[in-house]
Amino acid sequence: MSLSLSSYPTRFAILTLLSATTVFFFYKSRRHLSKRLKSLNPISQNPIPKTPRGKIFFISQTGTSKTLAKSLHSLLNLNGFEFDLVDPKEYEPEDLHKESFVVIVSSTWEDGKPPSNAGFFVDWLTESADDFRVGSLLLSKCKFAIFGVGSGSYGETFNAVGRDFSKKLKKLGGVEVLEVCEGDVDEGNLDEVFGKWSKRVVGALSSLGENGGYMGNGIGDGSEDEAVSEGDDDEEYDDEFEENDEESGIVDLEDIAGKGPSRKKGVNDKLINGKLNGGTVNGEKAMVTPVIRASLEK
Ligand SMILES: Cc1cc2nc3c(=O)[nH]c(=O)nc-3n(C[C@H](O)[C@H](O)[C@H](O)COP(=O)(O)O)c2cc1C
Q1: Cα→Cα distances 285→251, 262, 278, Å
Q2: How far apart are the CA of 151 and the centre of ligand 1, in A?
Q3: What is the model's pTM?
Q4: Which residue's alpha carbon is at the smallest distance from atom 28 of ligand 1?
Q5: Which residue has the least CA distance to atom 17 on ligand 1?
Q6: Where do the record's region annotations for Disordered lie (predicted)?
Q7: Exposed (0-12), middle (13-18) or buried (19+): which is 246, by Cβ within 10 Å?
Q8: Quick check: ipTM above 0.95?
Q9: Ranges for all domains in the chain classified under CATH 3.40.50.360
Q10: What angle do CA 167, 124, 265 make, to 5 degrees?
Q11: Mutate to test the pocket of ligand 1, among 64, 67, 109 (most ligand atoms within 8 A of CB)
Q12: How far is the CA of 142 from the centre of ligand 1 (A)?
């Protein structure tokens, strides 16, 4: 049977073939175009991960530390560093491991204890730091600096809380970027000491920004003149950062890291067995240890 171009079936077959080819190439070119557009716009595919804003915690009974923390907050904002001023009472310490930079301004009270707004925060840190299974990498992404407010007349417990914070955060892997600064209300120069220390915080943040250790939008280049907006103090800031002390003693870190004691209701509510219910034991708020929590979430 001979095929003639003029025959109806042949024309129909050619037309069908042409249509199918056109549809195929149209589809292919659209896919190619959309792929190209995506590759030209990498942000839509790989959004830049959001680094959490820094946190300034004020731990204060009568407001002194809170006032100082507020002034540091203004100074950091003025220098382009994004920080939140936080009352630890309102903070979930379980989120600490997500923080990139934490500043604590804390006073010390009777018997070297912290003010009441830090009760849970301190208990959480103590439990976590004392539990060898939590490990020393829990806060390894968190850099921190501490300013203590106390009175020298209390002798051994002078600024005990600030020093204790430093020890516990370091034990959990936090990286202390400045030595604890111990302000003494009895000396009459607390504001001045705090002002100098604040400048060193700005300097440290500027240096970290350059090294990619902190993703604020700091405008300084690490020099004190540029980083600090007021004052004429020429004290050098200390930008030596302590290396993360990676001590061993970690048991099943994957299960436990980032899971210190929690006050999140959902977690506490899961503990039943007649012991814990609604996050309380005999009417008191329950502390869930990392170990209990890890086994709950398995
Ligand atoms: C009852 C009492 C106990 C104190 N105990 C200590 C202490 O043990 N160690 C210390 O360094 N300062 C101690 N202080 C001093 C406070 O830390 C100081 O007054 C500080 O300015 C309070 O800051 P705040 O208002 O931020 O809480 C104590 C003060 C009072 C009134």
Answers
A1: 27, 11, 9
A2: 6
A3: 0.68
A4: 109
A5: 150
A6: 214-271
A7: exposed
A8: yes
A9: 54-227
A10: 160
A11: 109
A12: 28
In angstroms, what is the span from residue 23 Cα to ligand 1's centroid? 80
CATH class assigned to 54-227: alpha beta
Residues 38-96 pLDDT 10s: 555 544 455 554 557 999 999 999 999 999 999 999 999 999 999 999 999 999 999 99
Q: Name residues contacting ligand 1 (CB within 6 A).
A: 60-65, 107-110, 112, 115, 149-151, 154, 157-159, 185
Rg (the chain; Cα; Å): 29
**Predicted confidence (pLDDT) per residue in 121-164, tens digit:** 999 999 999 998 888 899 999 999 999 999 999 999 999 999 99
In ligand 1, the atom with minimum distance to the C-alpha of 59 is 26
**284 Ramachandran zone, left/alpha/beta (phi>0; psi -120 to 50):** beta
